[in-house]
Specification:
Blueprint lengths: L8 E3 L5 E3 L16 H5 L7 H24 L5 H26 L7 H14 L4 H14 L14 E2 H5 L3 H10 L2 H14 L6 H4 L4 H25 L1 H27 L14 H7 L3 E3 L4 H4 L6 H6 L8 H7 L8 E3 H6 L5 E3 L4 E3 L1 H7 L1
Parallel strand pairs: 3-6, 4-5
Antiparallel strand pairs: 1-2, 6-7
Helix pairs in contact: 2-3, 3-4, 3-11, 4-10, 5-10, 8-11, 10-11
Length: 361
């Protein structure tokens, strides 16, 4: 990797000047994943005005698209379904803003992050405090074969899969099937499981339980208001496709961020949180306006290395350090090939398909 941005001063368009200067000699080049931490922490400071604006330009279009989808019912349901797709994309962006709140990255004060996250959690069907806790566990344990099961997509090793009974192998195959993983599962996760998410609440304190109860009460109130305004049939006709499409997009993004061929998995004591962050997370290099629409979540390797960076500063990181751009870079076309990967091969240290696993036997 070459040294990028030597002696450069980056200027945020919102007026926040960031000193990105590095020594021009090769010693400035990070030798290990953890060496990036000191560099990346320079980008951690949020701009409250920018953060507020980001919420505004996401929430307002979502509301307008929702109303447009409702009005389109008088023309034809096909038009409502078409409008539901961009509405779902903005709902995903709201979830990703909530995600930054959970990391304390969007505003300087914890209280501001938390309450904005809780309010957005009603729209995204996600109990904020319970989710924040499980997501923190995900960041602290991702890629650790000895600490799976919280905030992750279930992934077995080839050896573990071979040791299963035929019935349990079938269950795992069904779970990892694209129709279940990206079609049936996501809406069930957000609509049903998040109403009482026992996996998130295991060992949790009262705040997580209060978050679940408060989110559910907020949902009841919000749904009652919308049903009173537009009627239950129109409400479901508009809201259900938005939730189904949005949840599927969200799970797809999470899948691609970690389920790629040369991802990182290891057992203790070989597992290292910084190596897992950099090499167990992808750079999902999406085309056009999709990085903006997905709140730059594709720059996931940098996010896992330093999760306090606001998502709108991640493009600046990539401009200042272009050597990070090719670290586990996955294009949109590449990402579709990741769907076939189902098992971790301990010997080759990569994800493989069921067919490849049989060949290895």
């Amino acid at each position: 990797m070459g040294v990028a941005s030597a002696g450069r001063l980056g200027t945020d368009p919102w007026g926040d000047h960031l000193d990105h200067s590095l020594a021009s000699d090769s010693s400035a080049q990070p030798a290990k994943a953890r060496d990036w931490i000191e560099i990346l922490q320079r980008y951690r400071h949020p701009d409250p005005a920018r953060s507020t604006f980001e919420i505004f330009i996401t929430l307002v279009p979502f509301c307008l698209l929702w109303v447009a989808a409702w009005l389109a019912l008088d023309i034809g349901y096909w038009l409502t379904l078409l409008i539901a797709v961009p509405a779902a994309a903005f709902l995903v962006r709201l979830f990703l803003i909530q995600h930054d709140c959970g990391h304390g990255a969007l505003f300087r004060k914890k209280l501001t992050n938390d309450w904005i996250g809780r309010v957005l959690g009603v729209l995204t069907l996600t109990p904020y405090d319970a989710w924040r806790r499980s997501h923190a566990i995900h960041h602290a344990s991702h890629g650790n074969l000895d600490a799976r099961g919280v905030g992750d997509i279930d992934t077995l090793t080839v050896r573990e899969y071979r040791a299963l009974s035929p019935w349990r192998r079938l269950l795992y195959r069904v779970y990892r099937h694209p129709i279940v993983l990206f079609g049936i599962g996501p809406p069930l996760l957000f609509v049903v499981q998040h109403r009482l998410p026992f996996s998130m609440l295991r060992g949790a304190d009262w705040r997580s339980w209060a978050s679940v109860i408060g989110t559910n009460l907020g949902l009841v109130a919000a749904c009652a208001l919308m049903i009173w305004l537009v009627g239950w049939q129109d409400f479901l006709a508009v809201q259900l496709p938005i939730v189904v499409v949005g949840s599927s997009i969200g799970v797809w993004l999470f899948y691609i961020q970690h389920q790629f061929e040369d991802t990182f998995w290891a057992e203790n004591p070989q597992w290292n949180v910084h190596e897992a962050a950099l090499h167990g997370s992808s750079h999902y290099d999406l085309p056009g306006f999709l990085p903006w629409l997905t709140a730059n979540i594709g720059v996931h390797h940098v996010h896992h290395l330093y999760s306090r960076i606001p998502y709108y500063r991640l493009p600046q990181v990539m401009r200042d350090f272009p050597e990070l751009a090719n670290v586990h870079r996955i294009t949109l076309l590449d990402s579709f090939k990741c769907v076939r990967l189902r098992l971790w091969d301990e010997n080759q240290r990569r994800l493989v398909s069921f067919t490849e696993a049989r060949g290895l036997a």
